[in-house]
Amino acid sequence: MAASRNHPAAPAPARRKSPAAPASPWAALPERQRQREAKRNAVLTTAAQLFNERGFHATSLDDIAAQLHVSKPTLYYYVKNKDEILLACVKKGLHMTLDGIEASRAAGGNAVDQLRACMQVYADIVMQPFGMCLIRVGDEEVPEPARSELRRMKSEIDLAFRRLVAQGVEEGSLNPCDPKMTAFVIAGALSWIGRWYQPEGRYGPEEVAQQCIETLLGGVLRRPPPARRPKKAA
């Protein structure tokens, strides 16, 4: 029967609210990616430290897993094998160096200012795990074609030093020299820091870098003071 004016229709029953969905135990995708990247970096950093201490061949995936307090199968979620770990470690060291050199050059200044800044960057990085791994293990252990790629990146570092040395000679702020040989000496001397530097040693990284750079730029020979010109008679 239709409702009359004096007897309106009864209100519709209220809808029941659906129960709230339980919170997902899985993090959102960006957060999961961030966590995975952080864990992968932990694997690479630990591996680089062990490679530096024991050598590449003497370090196993079991050693890396034990250092991280995880099982060996857990590592395979982040890396394929030990060769991939080494490649990633060496690449990180190279990218850090190239990015630092580029930033130093972009900061401006004359050739000597830029050369000193680039030397500082290089010295700092070879005392860090990835840079030290680049020097102590090297690309000889990396299979092709990755080995050729790494050597190409290394040549970019060499060319950056050569250009700055050549520019300094042209400006007159550096003694005349062969830029190629001088760049080899600079990079070779700074690279060697990565082999002998010990974090628990007497000198901290800042002091090591400063002393090495000053020696390379200033030399070791003691230069006699300039001769005084005799005063002209009045």
Structural summary, described in words:
The chain is mainly α. The chain has a single domain, classed as Tetracycline Repressor, domain 2, CATH 1.10.357. Helices cover 62% and strands 0% of the residues. The protein is built from 9 helices and no strands. The protein has helices spanning 29-54, 61-68, 72-75, 82-106, 111-125, 129-136, 146-171, 179-196, 205-218. Helix 6 (129-136) packs across helix 8 and helix 8 runs antiparallel to helix 9 (205-218). The longest helix is centred in the first third of the chain and has 26 residues, at 29-54. The protein is elongated. 25% of the residues are buried.
Domain count: the total is 1
Mean pLDDT: 86
CATH topology: Tetracycline Repressor, domain 2
The level 1 CATH classification is Mainly Alpha
Number of helices: 9
Write the layout of secondary structure elements.
Blueprint: H1 29-54, H2 61-68, H3 72-75, H4 82-106, H5 111-125, H6 129-136, H7 146-171, H8 179-196, H9 205-218
Helix pairs in contact: 1-2, 1-4, 1-6, 4-5, 4-6, 4-7, 5-7, 5-9, 6-8, 7-8, 8-9
Could you give a quick summary of the protein structure above?
With 234 residues, the chain is mainly alpha-helical. The chain has helices at 29-54, 61-68, 72-75, 82-106, 111-125, 129-136, 146-171, 179-196, 205-218.
